[in-house]
Each structure stands twice: as structure tokens, then as C-alpha cells.
């Protein structure tokens, strides 16, 4: 009890001394507001305040996690890219030598839980808004959008860490009679990943019946985006539910999306928010809304992150896939600027998909597109015993880039054909690591990855390294958290 009382005074003192309305605590999603009257504080009084809160949650798709770390985690952690640059935290991710003090690990945990906190505030308080300007229809849409965003963040968390705290409420007031309740919210234990996935699905189902089918641009949540993430979730959670994957992929495909006729059109910046795009983060550019992340991956001013791998380039060449290779990778001369053991200075590769890498870039990021979902449906069909149906979808993707039909016929052959096709089609879009993990192929593939001249890179990926460590700072603050094995 003494510990609880001391914490109460500590929280109150911090809150009262802050010039901010809310104080972010452990994890970063929790907001504490001291209320001396004993009544819960009112978060929103007007429709505009609710809209601003939702805009704040959407804006987190433009933070450091999604501009940079999303691609480091998905591509440099896999065999599509090396860490590049000079950041030791990224080197740890690339080499499977993470520890609990890694700064990327700490900030990614904080970013994701911070956004969850914003969505919790919306979902927990929107029903109390009496402003008639917030119509019932718009209220339902906002609930759906916030639920989708929360699900998207938890999907990142559960794939990176496995069991994580499941936080759905925020603390609105502090009082002595609520100490046990407050403690359980601010300092939660980890919930089993099955519970996390169940909540993700609940949130997505909440969103599906509330969000619109279309929006001003692909940066807003629509039924297509919800169906796409549902398909991905059912393909990822254990056990996989391939019937559900097929169901939600079919719902996306029936939603009016279509492949662009030319693969290059996806990346030429003349077709943003295209018919192929399902969820795309929109930037207007300039100081206020520039995508600085692209400058991290391309340019000759300093050594860039996510250096395309020898293994990926060899995979493009082995398939004679020149269209996707040229769209995905560009080779430049960096003589006199820097060097890297993986590539000669005169033939040094950069990611070519994000081509506007100037200051204040208005380059959009495409997070989900139709080709991804077509290949995911192919995977579902194959696992359901229909490799012929899977082949037809794979061939649809290959035909766009002038490649012959797949020669795979058996279920086992088709698994590898789909894996290869997803790699070449979706390179540098943040998918590869999660594809390898959910198919159980990460250890075999990574430990056999090849570097320059086809020589083994010597990775030593072990089962415990498929998950990240809980950040040490979080363990220090919350005694209920237990570290992942192997760290």
C-alpha cells in the first residue's frame, strides 16, 4: 500500500507540474489527468475536438516508425537488404544481435503504444460527445477508423514481440480508491498473443461495418483496407485460417481495385492513389508535411540505410526479371564517397521505388496494394488444395512484367513459387521478414542467404531471435513484464 500511495503522489506531482494536458507514462499510450473532484475528466466536448484526435492518430503513420523503421524491420531484418548506413542499432537488427537496450526497439515500442493510446482515448470517449455537429453517421465512421488504426498498431506489436500488454483503456483520474485499477492499466502484464490477435480481429470487424467503401484518397481507412488487413491477420496468426484468408482476399478483389498495366507506373510518382493501391500514406510535401524517410534510403550525400542485398539482386537475375529489378534497384557510382564490403563503389545499389528523396518530399508510401492480396489469395488457395487456382493468380502477376507462367504444379512447388513471387513483386515494401516468419521459413532462408560472389553471409538466426526483446527501460519500469527467452 505504501508503494501505491507513493506512486499516487508521484503521478499527481508529475501531472500538476506538466504544461501538457496529459502525461504519457509506461507504456507511452497511457494518459493521466489528475481530477480532484473524483469525476472522470471530459476529453471531448465538440465534434472538431474528436476530428482533431483522429487526425492525430492518422498522423502517426508519418512518424519515425512508419517513415523508417517499418522498412528496416521488414526488409533489412530479412534477406532483401542490409542495414547500410552507420547506425549500430540497425546493424544489430540486420545481424540478429539485438539486445534489450537497442534504441530502435525502445522507440518502436513507444511509437506503437503511443498511437494505441490515442485511439483508446477516441474509442473510450466519443460516445459522451453531445455536440450535434458530430452526427451519428460520422461518429460510427470515426469509431471504425480508430479501431482499424489500433488494430494495425497491435498487428505490428504482436509480430515483433509476440505476447505484449493489451491496453484498451486510459486512466482519466487518480484517486486513492482506484489505485489497484490504475496500477493494472499503467503497469500491465503481457497478454498471450492469442488474445492480441483476438482483439485485432474484433477491432477490424468493428471497423469493417463502419468505414466507407471509398475516401478522398487511399490514406483514409476504407473497407478495402480493413478486408486486406483481416486477410493478413488470418494468414499470420497460428493456426492459419486459410478459408478466412480467401474470404477477405475475395472481398478486396471485389472492391473495384485493379492492377496497373505497367509495373513502373506504381513508382513513377504520376499515379499516386492508383486503382492498385489499397492503403497509401499521402504526403503533400514541404516543411509541414514532407516525407523525410525517402532521404534515408536514397541519395549521394551520405551512406544510406537498407542497402539492397546481393541475394535479392541475384534472385531478380535468376528469374530474368528485369522490369521489377530496374523498378526496385538503381545502381550508381559512389567512388570517393563511401565503401561497403557487399558492393563495389562503381556499381552501388539503392532502393529505386521511393524516387522523390529531396528535402520536403511529397513521396507517398504504399503500405497495401492489390498485387500483395492476389498473391496472398494464391497462398490460401494452394494451402486449401488448389495449386492450379494459385498458379492462375501467380501468372497474373508475372504476366504484367513479361515473365512466362510458373512451372510449379505441386503444392510444395507452389509454396516456393509464391514465396519467390512475393519477394520480387514486393521488394522494399516492408513485407519480406513477416512473410518468412509466418511461413516458418525465416531460419532456413536467412541462414542460407548469400552475399558477394554467392558466398554465405553467415547469419545465425535462432528460434528465440524471431522475436524482439522487451525494451529494458520498460522492464525497469514495470515489474510485471517478463523478457522474451534468449535475451
List keywords for this structure.
mainly alpha; 19 helices; 487 residues; two-stranded antiparallel ribbon; Serine Threonine Protein Phosphatase 5, Tetratricopeptide repeat; disordered N terminus; globular; single chain
Describe the structure.
Among the domains are: 202 residues, Alpha Horseshoe (Serine Threonine Protein Phosphatase 5, Tetratricopeptide repeat); 81 residues, no CATH class. By secondary structure, it is mainly alpha-helical. Helix 14 runs antiparallel to helix 16. Strands 1-2 form a two-stranded antiparallel ribbon. It has a two-stranded antiparallel sheet with strand order 3-5. The chain has a two-stranded antiparallel sheet with strand order 4-8. The radius of gyration is 23 Å and the shape is globular. The N terminus is likely disordered.
Q: Per CATH, what is the topology of the domain at 2-71 and 80-211? A: Serine Threonine Protein Phosphatase 5, Tetratricopeptide repeat
**Mean pLDDT reading:** 92
Shape: globular
User: What sequence of helices (H) and strands (E) makes up the elements?
Assistant: HEEHHEHHHHHHHEHEHHEEEHHHHHH
Over all CA atoms, what is the radius of gyration? 23 Å
Strand-pairing-aware structural class:
mainly alpha
- What's the N-to-C terminus distance? 32 Å
- CATH class group of the domain at 2-71 and 80-211: Mainly Alpha
Largest sheet: 2 strands, antiparallel
Number of helices: 19
How many beta-strand segments? 8
Uncertain stretches of 5 or more adjacent residues: 1-39
What is the percent of helical residues? 40-55%
Q: How would you classify the quaternary structure?
A: single chain
Q: Strand order, main sheet: write it out.
A: 1-2
Amino acid at each position: 500500500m505504501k508503494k501505491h500511495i507513493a506512486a499516487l503522489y508521484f503521478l499527481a506531482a508529475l501531472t500538476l507540474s506538466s504544461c501538457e494536458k496529459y502525461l504519457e507514462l509506461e507504456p507511452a499510450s497511457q494518459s493521466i489527468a489528475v481530477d480532484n473532484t473524483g469525476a472522470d475528466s471530459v476529453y471531448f466536448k465538440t465534434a472538431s475536438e474528436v476530428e482533431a484526435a483522429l487526425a492525430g492518430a492518422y498522423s502517426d503513420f508519418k512518424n519515425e516508425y512508419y517513415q523508417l523503421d517499418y522498412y528496416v524491420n521488414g526488409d533489412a531484418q530479412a534477406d532483401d537488404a542490409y542495414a547500410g548506413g552507420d547506425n549500430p542499432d540497425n546493424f544489430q537488427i540486420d545481424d540478429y544481435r539485438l539486445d534489450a537496450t537497442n534504441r530502435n526497439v525502445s522507440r518502436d515500442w513507444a511509437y506503437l503504444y503511443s498511437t494505441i493510446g490515442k485511439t483508446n482515448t477516441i474509442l473510450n470517449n466519443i460516445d459522451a460527445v453531445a455536440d450535434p455537429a458530430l452526427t451519428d453517421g460520422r461518429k460510427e465512421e470515426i469509431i471504425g477508423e480508430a479501431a482499424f488504426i489500433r488494430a494495425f498498431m497491435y498487428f505490428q506489436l504482436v509480430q515483433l514481440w509476440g505476447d505484449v500488454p493489451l491496453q484498451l483503456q486510459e486512466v482519466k483520474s487518480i484517486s486513492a480508491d482506484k489505485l489497484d485499477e490504475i496500477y493494472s492499466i499503467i503497469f500491465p502484464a503481457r497478454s498471450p498473443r492469442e488474445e492480441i490477435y483476438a482483439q485485432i480481429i474484433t477491432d477490424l470487424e468493428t471497423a469493417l461495418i463502419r468505414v466507407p467503401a471509398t475516401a478522398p484518397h487511399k490514406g483514409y481507412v476504407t473497407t478495402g483496407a480493413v478486408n486486406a488487413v483481416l486477410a493478413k491477420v488470418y494468414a499470420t496468426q497460428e493456426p492459419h485460417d486459410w478459408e478466412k484468408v480467401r474470404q477477405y482476399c475475395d472481398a478486396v478483389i471485389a472492391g473495384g481495385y485493379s492492377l496497373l498495366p505497367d509495373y513502373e507506373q506504381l513508382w513513377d510518382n504520376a499515379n499516386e492513389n492508383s486503382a492498385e493501391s489499397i492503403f497509401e500514406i499521402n504526403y503533400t510535401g514541404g516543411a509541414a508535411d514532407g516525407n523525410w524517410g525517402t532521404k534515408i534510403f536514397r541519395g549521394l550525400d551520405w551512406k544510406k540505410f537498407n542497402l539492397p542485398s546481393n541475394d535479392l539482386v541475384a534472385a531478380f537475375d535468376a528469374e530474368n526479371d528485369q522490369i521489377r529489378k530496374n523498378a526496385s534497384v538503381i545502381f550508381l557510382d559512389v567512388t570517393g564517397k563511401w565503401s561497403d564490403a557487399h558492393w563495389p563503389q562503381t556499381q552501388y545499389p539503392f532502393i529505386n521505388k521511393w524516387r522523390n528523396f529531396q528535402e520536403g518530399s511529397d513521396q507517398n508510401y504504399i503500405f497495401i496494394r492489390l498485387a500483395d492480396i492476389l498473391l496472398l489469395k494464391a497462398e490460401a488457395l494452394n494451402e486449401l488444395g488448389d495449386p492450379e487456382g494459385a498458379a492462375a493468380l501467380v501468372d497474373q502477376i508475372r504476366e504484367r512484367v513479361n515473365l512466362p507462367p510458373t512451372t510449379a504444379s505441386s503444392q510444395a512447388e507452389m509454396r516456393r513459387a509464391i514465396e519467390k513471387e512475393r519477394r520480387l513483386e514486393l521488394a522494399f515494401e516492408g513485407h519480406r521478414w513477416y512473410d518468412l516468419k509466418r511461413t516458418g521459413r525465416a531460419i532456413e532462408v536467412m541462414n542460407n542467404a548469400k552475399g558477394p560472389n554467392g558466398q554465405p553471409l553467415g547469419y545465425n538466426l535462432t528460434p528465440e531471435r524471431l522475436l524482439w526483446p522487451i525494451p529494458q527501460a520498460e522492464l525497469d519500469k514495470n515489474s510485471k513484464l517478463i523478457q522474451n527467452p534468449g535475451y
